[in-house]
Amino acid sequence: MTDALKLGFGSFSAPAKGVLVVFCDEAQKFGPATRKTLGSATDYVARAAKAERFTGKKDSVLDLIVPAGLKVPRLIVVGLGKTADLRPNDFLKFGGLAMGKLPASTSDATVFAEMPGGAMKSEQAADLALGVRLRAYAFDRYKTKRKEAETPPATRTITIAVGDIAVARKAYASRSAISEGVVLARDLVNEPANVLFPEEFARRAGALKKLQVAVEVLDTKALKNLGMNALLGVGQGSARESSVVVMRWNGGRAGEAPVAFIGKGVCFDTGGISIKPAASMEDMKGDMAGAACVVGLMHALAGRKARVNAVGVIGLVENMPDGKAQRPGDIVKSMSGQTIEIINTDAEGRLVLADVIWYTVQRFKPKFMVDLATLTGAIIVALGQEYAGMFSNNDQLAERLTAAGLETGELVWRMPLSPEYDKMIDSKFADMKNTGGSRWGGAITAAQFIKRFVDDKIPWAHLDIAGTGFDSRQTDINKSWGSGWGVRLLNRLVADHYEK
Ligand code: BES
Ligand code: MN
Ligand code: ZN
Questions:
Q1: Gap between the Cα atoms of 238 and 477, Å rounded
Q2: What does DSSP say about strands 259-269 and 19-24: parallel, antiparallel, or unpaired?
Q3: For position 184, what pLDDT does the model report?
Q4: Which helix (H) or strand (E) holds 52?
Q5: Which of 34, 107, 345, 354 would disulfide-bridge 30, Cβ 3.0–4.6 Å?
Q6: Is the pLDDT of residue 2 over 80?
Q7: Which is more confident, 128 or 68?
Q8: Where do runs of H (alpha helix) occur along 55-164?
């Protein structure tokens, strides 16, 4: 949790406190304010760089303890590489990189947001600050013991030195809202399923009310009345009640059709009667990462008062084996009226999405919709953990998502949809079956299934985030497991194209 972090902006001339972080380019050139602060230490830094073979290459770091000629106990030099090539996402990473280099015990640090040519632009400094914030996140609420060296101070104060404090603060305001959305999404993904079951998830989504988001919870009874039997079938083996949460943020023109985001919220996926093997099954507490992203995104949009009408709809269930659980061979009637033969109870996410997507289309007639789901292992086989799989019925939406991905570093790669794949989910007994039968093209047949519940007049994109929603590797801006993936991507999509 990041509450112990005090992140603020200051001036270059105020004396640096604690650890000092500065930037240089690939010619090891510093900006004027940095040179002034380094003063007589400049020579020492140059010699240390040479000894350490530090060249200022992008993302490289020179870490100097008790640097001669400086009052600070530690100096960290981060390489920017070629400054002309830098993109917004790079500044985010630099912030994360700098934060990651601070020793756990650091209580004060100053980061000089300066490049050789002078102070970073406020947007760049604000991106740097966002990177610091996201990297500082830790999910440690269940740790009761800690090694001495890992014990953080009660508060950490990090000051970003900038050219214009007021403008940088203003640029950071929207990013602060985004960071809260990402942190919320990460918390939800990281929580274990004995704590975060569907009702508790819905309760946490209810906290968005304090940001003027309208939050409705449809309980099992309401879902039965609506005919959401595909979703309810998944949850029927669980002791926990299934629900659907609808979140609405109206920051746009009154009466204008909203943009819609839909999330798979399987709070735990055992596979059901088609039970999963034991290895790594604990990861399936993160099978609600799509829903977590939608809640985090709604939090971010409302927090920065985005000038858009947006709805978030999430389907919350737990997939368990039980005497009451759904069986392979069962046939369910979805809210759309289409019938589904259950071949594998582990292909449950698409059943949840089928009803939630249909409901969203009928009720909101959105301008476009994006669904996010940790849907298939097959997408991890195809793309690994670098890109999410994207399936879309609309080239413009797909292109906008691709561009937003490049801007934010939350990358998407478009995958195909076609009638040939669609045929693979035809069923002998019902309108369709819930798997393609073979493992081949498993992410595609899953997307084809969802497509049968989409109105093709509405631009739609499906993001299979099985590889990106949680991650055991560490990245520059995340050292926890839940990534909060998609919050920044979709916030960017909205900000670039859909705000009035
Ligand atoms: N939640 C899983 C997919 C998943 C796997 C997400 C690993 C993240 C990491 C999904 O419900 C599932 O079990 N999919 C099956 C579908 C198959 C039975 C057609 C899969 O991918 O094996
Ligand atoms: Mn499953
Ligand atoms: Zn699942």
A1: 36
A2: unpaired
A3: 98
A4: none
A5: 34
A6: no
A7: 128
A8: 88-101, 122-136
- Would you say 184 and 176 are in contact if contact means Cβ atoms under 8 Å apart? no
Mutate to test the pocket of ligand 1, among 287, 352, 372, 462 (most ligand atoms within 8 A of CB): 287
CA distance 428 to 436: 13
Q: What lines the ligand 1 site, CB under 6 Å?
A: 269, 283, 287, 344, 346-349, 374-378, 435, 442, 466
Please tell me which residue, 149 or 445, carries the higher pLDDT value. 445
Span from the CA of 121 to the centroid of ligand 3 (angstroms) = 43
Report how far residue 295's alpha carbon sits from residue 490's, in angstroms, rounded to the nearest whole number: 12
With left for phi above 0 and alpha for psi between -120 and 50, is residue 271 left, alpha or beta? Answer: left
Q: Which of 49, 131, 144, 48 is nearest to 88 (CA)?
A: 131
Beta strands, E only, 286-386: 309-319, 331-333, 339-341, 369-373
Interval 69-111: pLDDT, tens: 999 999 999 999 999 999 999 999 999 999 999 998 999 999 9
* Amino acid sitting at position 377: G
The string of DSSP letters for 399-453 reads: HHHHHHHHHHS-EEEE----HHHHHTT--SSSSEESS-SSSTTHHHHHHHHHHTT
For residue 134, which of 403, 410, 451 has the smallest C-alpha distance?
A: 410
Q: Facing residues of 162 across strands?
A: 11
Q: How far is CA 194 from CA 268, 280, 334, 415, 455, in A?
A: 9, 17, 29, 35, 36
In 10 A of CB 117, how many CB atoms? 12
**Which of 464, 450, 496, 462 lies closest to 387, judged by CA?**
464
- Amino acid, single-letter form, for residue 47: R
Query: H helices of 137-273, where?
Result: 165-190, 198-205, 220-226, 229-235
Whether 169 sits among the annotated catalytic residues: the reply is no
**Which residue of the set 304, 350, 400, 451 is catalytic?**
350
Instruction: State pLDDT tens for residues 330-370.
Output: 999 999 999 999 999 999 999 999 999 999 999 999 999 99
Residue 106 to residue 410: CA distance in whole angstroms: 30
